[in-house]
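This section describes the prediction task in plain terms. A model, or a person checking by hand, is given the sequence of a single protein chain and must write out its three-dimensional structure as a string of tokens. No templates, partner chains or ligands are provided. The sample shown here is typical of the held-out split.
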Amino acid sequence: MLEDTMVMMLGEFGRTPKVDNKNAGRDHWASCFCGLFAGAGVQPGQVIGKSDKSGGYPITPPYSPDDIGATVYSVMGIDPHAEVRDRLNRPVQLNRGRVITPLFDGKAE
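The expected answer:
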């Protein structure tokens, strides 16, 4: 069943690369975060994308929430770049992201 289903675990933020000495914690950090993907043809055991030494900023081309959306649409058999119509029959692009192909072809950057 897992082959037919994509399982994802991710959040919208990572955490600051260093502990804040004033509050002894780590704040939200949108520049880098991680996610886990499984099933639906995802090749296991990969690390896709790299950050700098401190984990603060990407050093490979970053992926966006739109890219995650495009990937999910693609797995569902929906063209992520399809045009749909809203209630007033205006054209709206379904998604502006790109499919995260290294998840499926095993060719991480």
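For orientation: The first strand starts at residue 7 and ends at 10.
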